[in-house]
Amino acid sequence: MAFMRYYRALPHGETTVEEFRAWLSQFDADGDGRISREELEEALRSLNLWFAWWKAREAMRAVDANRNRAVDGDEMGRLYAFAHKHLHVKMSQLEE
């Protein structure tokens, strides 16, 4: 018997920063408060985006300022901006 994990969907319409952060946190598999490329890829796959692996790689290249292979701290603001600009996620406000 296969087990499937179900994730909460990203809210429709404009998404606040808090809603985006809460949605993304469910993909933090190891619970360290950071989002790895693999976890980001899983989040993008849940949105049924084509080429989720490539988009996750591009997002990490764009937002991982300290090159620790994870989105953490101040980099979250950069991820919100990337999602708005490149993944067409509608945000009602952006933190920088």
From TrEMBL:
<protein>
    <recommendedName>
        <fullName>EF-hand domain-containing protein</fullName>
    </recommendedName>
</protein>
<feature type="domain" description="EF-hand">
    <location>
        <begin position="15"/>
        <end position="50"/>
    </location>
</feature>
<dbReference type="GO" id="GO:0005509">
    <property type="term" value="F:calcium ion binding"/>
</dbReference>
<dbReference type="InterPro" id="IPR011992">
    <property type="entry name" value="EF-hand-dom_pair"/>
</dbReference>
<dbReference type="InterPro" id="IPR018247">
    <property type="entry name" value="EF_Hand_1_Ca_BS"/>
</dbReference>
<keyword id="KW-0677">Repeat</keyword>
<keyword id="KW-0106">Calcium</keyword>
<dbReference type="InterPro" id="IPR050145">
    <property type="entry name" value="Centrin_CML-like"/>
</dbReference>
<dbReference type="InterPro" id="IPR002048">
    <property type="entry name" value="EF_hand_dom"/>
</dbReference>
<dbReference type="Pfam" id="PF13202">
    <property type="entry name" value="EF-hand_5"/>
</dbReference>
